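Table 4 source record.
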Amino acid sequence: MVAWETSAHADADLVLTSLEYALASREVAPGRLVHHADHGCQYTSIKLTTRLVRAGIQASMGSVGDSFDNALAENLWILIKTEGIRGRVFATRAEANLTLFEYIDGFYNPRRIQKRLGYLSPIEFEEKHYANQATAEPVNLKPRQPALTS
């Protein structure tokens, strides 16, 4: 998880705040990022769609009523609830934020290995991805040879 935020309201401002944190934490070239969401009003707002366009981010929305479109996000929320929150009730948002921080930034991202990531944590997987990109040989950069005609 690259960025997260909490709020008393699930509105466009909450999504925009999280998006700004995410954009500030990574260097992504325009046109290389996809923002996938459901059809909630916070994701279809003019505020958010305008910001996505300005940042060169492609918006993607799943089919209405298709839970498989958001399966990865739903899986993450299940893990947060079962491993991080574990049924606790928080007296304050600050208390909840601390628990989320400890789980997401202290455990999930740096230490929770995942089969689908080759038994790496999300941070290890991302580091490996960028290391592989840096050492990869460029492809299709050789000049084309003109076809010989008789």
